[in-house]
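Need Methyltransferase domain-containing protein's 3D structure for a figure. Predict it.
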Amino acid sequence: MSGYLTRSQTVSIRGALPLSLTLLKDNQQFYDPLGQAQALGVCSASWPLFGLLWPSSIRLAQKIAQRKLCKTERILELGCGLGLASLVAHRQGRNITASDRHPLAQKFLLKNTQANQLPPIPYKYAQWGQPCYAHIATEQGLRPLQSQFDLIMASDVLYERSMAQELAHYVHQHAKPVAEVWVIDPNRGYAGAFTRALEQYGFSMRENRLLSQDRLPNGYGQVEVYNGRFLSYQRV
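Structure prediction for Methyltransferase domain-containing protein:
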């Protein structure tokens, strides 16, 4: 027994083949018998969030599916959760690394790559604003992120005021001198602060586009009209 309940769902992505996903049954799941999540700063309230399907992650998957393929381009997904965008990119033959802070994210990612007959996706532990957790992650057998990338992408990661500056600094650390950054943000109100923080590291805004208001499933199994933005930055 795993101690938590899961369910299966087929997800359709515009511009890509459908994917079969294993995800948590609902947002009431919690299982941390050894305190591994707590040791990494993941509280009980946020524990299930990695394993739910979020509208912004669907949008990010659609966006990477439409990008021109370049097999030498190194791509990083931050805060990947179930890694939907990483799975889409991986199946297209892109050089993708998935990352998250949750101790079970890698397990779910591996299960979902296998379910879709794909080889494993490179995975790293990543947590911005909390460098003290890196050695704990290492003790748990996780490999902290160290490399730099051409494109860093993320969805719904600006959910606290302090995260704008912290995330911008982390992106700067792991972006190549010439790099792009994509963020799908459901209008939480911190995009402006993130843009200003990235400017300090030489990034400029390329695009800030309101996304069409499709009806998409949210993390709680409900279908709602999506309200969010695609934010794109570049450093040259």
